[in-house]
Design a protein that fits this description.
- The chain has 7 helices and 6 strands; from the N terminus they run αβαββααβαβαβα.
- By secondary structure, the protein is an alpha/beta fold.
- Helix 2 packs antiparallel against helix 3 and helix 4 runs parallel beside helix 5.
- It is globular and about 60 Å long.
- The two termini are 31 Å apart.
């Protein structure tokens, strides 16, 4: 190699790996998803619109055997939509997404806690994988807002078999907290930067979001 400003570096080695996983077998497995949605004041306008766009696209992408529930957090935390079969309830799920409303502060700790509880309760009913999907602008301001506190939740969930996909939204999202949370086993991180990004992201990456193909 010959790079300007790095004259001492003359050799570079590229290292790749294969998981040995069968992608068709992974795609055939149903998935149960608990979407944990930040509906705090900072999500007003474009951010919550991007989240709803992504959720609608996810509902359209899900198939026979897939299940979806929605947990909301702001000042209050609640199960907005109990986990249900997607194919049989697609219209109701779209309506539940449209009904998400903004609500005050950003109590992410409580949102993740209820999300993981809902996902763990779902595991015996899941026909395949179970996963948490966190939609946030990454600005917690109530409860334990430390990365260590969230890492504890993510690690415990991972050990119990619940993976975590974090989806960032909003122009002030810097991803520092979400990057740490998504670094645990089964974690990954995506971002919705603009209008139409939700539909495009889920059309392109949905299977990659929910499929854990390699460990350690």
């Amino acid at each position: 190699a010959s790079l300007a400003g790095r004259s001492e570096d003359t050799r570079f080695i590229g290292i790749g790996f294969a998981s040995g996983a069968d992608p068709q077998a992974i795609r055939a497995q149903p998935v149960s998803i608990v979407a944990v949605v930040d509906r705090s004041g900072s999500m007003t306008g474009v951010p919550i619109a991007r989240v709803k766009e992504g959720l609608h696209a996810m509902v359209d992408a899900m198939r026979e055997g897939d299940r979806l529930g929605i947990v909301l957090y702001g000042s209050d935390t609640l199960v907005h939509q109990p986990v249900t079969d997607v194919v049989a309830n697609r219209a109701a799920l779209h309506a539940a997404i449209d009904a998400i409303a903004i609500n005050g502060s950003t109590y992410m700790e409580a949102g993740l806690s209820l999300g993981y509880k809902t996902a763990l309760d779902e595991m015996p009913r899941s026909a395949g994988r179970t996963r948490l999907m966190l939609f946030t602008d990454e600005n917690p301001n109530v409860g334990d807002t430390s990365a260590e506190g969230f890492m504890g939740q993510a690690l415990a969930g991972s050990r119990a078999g619940v993976g975590l996909t974090t989806i960032g939204v909003g122009v002030h999202y810097d991803g520092a907290l979400a990057t740490r949370i998504s670094s645990v086993r089964g974690g990954n991180l995506f971002f919705l930067p603009s209008e139409g990004a939700g539909s495009e992201l889920f059309a392109r990456e949905f299977e990659n979001m929910v499929s854990e193909v390699a460990q350690d």
